Amino acid sequence: MQKTFRKFRAKQLVPWAVPIVLIVLWQGLAQAGILSTRVLPAPTAVVQAGIQLASTGELFRNLWVSTTRAFTGLVIGGSIGFGLGLLTGSLPVAEKLLDTTVQMLRNIPHLAMIPLVILWFGIGEEAKLFLVSIGVFFPIYLNTFHGVRTVDRGLIEMGKVYGLSSTGLFWQVILPGAIPSILVGLRYALGFMWLTLIVAETIASDSGIGYMAMNAREFMRTDVVVFSILMYSLLGKVADTIAKFLETKLLQWHPSYQIA
């Protein structure tokens, strides 16, 4: 039992080995003076900056604002992408009508739209939510479309033979078969979500982690800037972990996702 527990703990710790080694190396180079603190402060200085921000409440206030923006944009853009992906994946007529337009729009870098978005919405919340929604829309749309189209035709035919209605086929065959691809799209979308939010908050914002970083830049607080960047990285990792947890829960039936 203890041997199994130790094996499990070792398995959990292995992915963190490289980040820990890099942080130790970073600290060593900073302490030795090889790495200028004006360029990259030592990890201990970055942690102290984080503690200071947490003690004043500024960290949690900006963290809440950024997280709310990110997941609101994910819900809006993800819902539209999911719905449209199901529609074009299920109905050939909808694919002919809509897919070409979506593919043309997909090739426009959504961050290149920032000047236009500011003209449309100003620098308020609407602009940031629009950009995040556009950023997450395409990965979820494409993977939902792909997931629906690659459901085993044999399973669909079997469902029809067993007398399943169109609704029954969708809920019992098509949607479960498409979920692995949809969840891959969700994980891609989470990456685009944080990337878009970083850019949106650093260009025009009066709150959020991006604003915190830009405000620190004005005062030459490199430690706070680095801390803000690391916060985005941490939030991205937490979001990806939640997505992987959903995979293990929703795909317990799938042989590829069963824990060995």
Given as residue ranges, the uncertain stretches (5+ residues, pLDDT < 50) are none
H/E element order: HHHHHHHHHHH
Provide the gyration radius in Å.
23 Å
Largest sheet: none
Strand proportion, as a percent range, falls in under 5%
Class by alpha and beta content: mainly alpha
Distance between the termini: 17 Å
Please provide the count of β strands. 0
From the spread of the alpha carbons, the general shape counts as flat
* Number of helical segments with 4 or more residues: 11
Fold and architecture overview:
The chain is mainly alpha-helical and 260 residues long. 80% of the residues lie in helices and 0% in strands. It is built from eleven helices and no strands. Helix 8 packs antiparallel against helix 9 and helix 10 runs antiparallel to helix 11. The longest helix is centred in the C-terminal third of the chain and has 38 residues, at 166-203. 28% of the residues are buried. The model has no long low-confidence stretch (mean pLDDT 86).
Which terms summarize this structure?
260 residues; mainly alpha; 11 helices
